[in-house]
Amino acid sequence: MPMKPLPVKPPPTRSSATQPPAARPAATMLAATNGNRPPAEEEAPRIDPRFACFALEIRPSPIHRWGIYALERIPPRRKVMEYTGERISRRETKRRGEERELHYLFTLNSYWTIDGSVGGSGAEYINHCCEPNLVARIVRERILYFSLREIQPGEELLIDYRFEKKMEEVPCRCGVPGCRGTINLLE
Ligand SMILES: [Zn+2]
Known about the structure:
This protein is mainly beta. It has 1 helix and 11 strands, in the order βββββαββββββ. The strands form 4 sheets. It has a 4-stranded antiparallel β-sheet. The protein has a 3-stranded antiparallel β-sheet with strand order 4-10-9, with no helix packed on it. Strands 2-3 form a two-stranded antiparallel sheet. Zinc ion (ZN) binds next to loops.
């Protein structure tokens, strides 16, 4: 199945600065999801160890293409990784969203987006799940992923992408009992 570009919704016009980072809905991250495996000849991406706080590795995921896996036990409420990339404007976000098939765009605030496909730490490969073990928090304009619970060695790291309801609906195949059936929020 060919991957379909996802429309990039312009970030909300209301100022996110009025809300505390923890209360802010997780930013909008776009990555085409169709459950496919990475092509056999595709070299595994790398994790930039400067932005990883635990031993992690990238390997194919049953959810979508590549995934990131813990190689050691991660306690709850610990910083696990930083999502890095090129900081781009609202206009450039829209352009890249329309142009590319795979997106690694994380809305930082009402104007800036981080494009993890340029200078990404590897966190852009963390897949969506409706029952995630990580949560994203914006701390001083940096996107940090924290553990929600204890994570065992060998577990895939997962985050809820929380696409907004009004965005184009993206089906979810995470497979957990509480799966919403869509990466989008239901309300
Ligand atoms: Zn799901």
